[in-house]
Amino acid sequence: MVYYSSSSGNTERFVTRLGWSAARIPIDPDAPTPAPEGPFVLICPTYADGEGRGAVPKQVIRFLNDPATRARLVGVIATGNRNFGATYALSGRIIAKKCQVPQLYSFELAGTETDIARVREGLTKLGENLCSTAT
To answer: What is the residue-wise DSSP string for 96-107?
Structure first.
């Protein structure tokens, strides 16, 4: 799992509560990004204006611009704030479409215990499916 979290820390709190191993895409745009060696799921918050511009953080765009990294992406989980209506979790829809992977889930802010349970269950099933299809 790879995730981006701004200084608000909502996404990081969610990932910490999941209890899974994860690499963080740094806030500093000049810092080196993680280099996943195998399939991974990306957790990404949404930062958009009222028109949806800027939904995917620049650091995430930079991370996914590497073809080898992008090829290992198997799904995206998006987060956001439901107060923003149609742009809620928009980053996930954008990444899923551009990278041709499924949006696996979305949650609000730092997520609820139900979100944690559902994501754990979904990631476990995804991992089992990835293992069963490996050659």
So the answer is: HHHHT--EEEEE
